[in-house]
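R.M. (postdoc): so does anyone remember the format we settled on? I'll just put the structure tokens first.
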């Protein structure tokens, strides 16, 4: 997967926001959610990333979301995040 830098107007091919909503933890309800971007990032793609986005690079493994409050991890879009999660 390659992450493409957003356009100057803040939009990308998939919609108006590159980073989307931060969201809340499905386990504890905290808003302290980290988004983990897994895969090769093109130069400049991370320049405007908010502080809650981490870049794992090509060797990143594991779920793409984690909670700083409770330590749980999950995959975004999982119908049942408890099923796909693992504790740190």
């Amino acid at each position: 997967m390659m992450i493409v830098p957003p356009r100057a107007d803040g939009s990308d091919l998939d919609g108006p926001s590159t980073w989307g909503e931060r969201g809340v933890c499905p386990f504890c309800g905290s808003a302290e959610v980290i988004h983990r971007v897994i895969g090769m990032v093109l130069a400049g793609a991370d320049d405007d990333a908010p502080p809650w986005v981490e870049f794992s690079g090509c060797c990143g493994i594991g779920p793409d979301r984690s909670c700083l409050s409770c330590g749980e991890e999950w995959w975004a879009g999982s119908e049942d995040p408890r099923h796909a999660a693992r504790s740190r």
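R.M.: ...and that's the designed sequence above, right after the tokens. Also worth knowing: The helical segments are 81-84. Confidence is low (pLDDT under 50) at residues 11-16.
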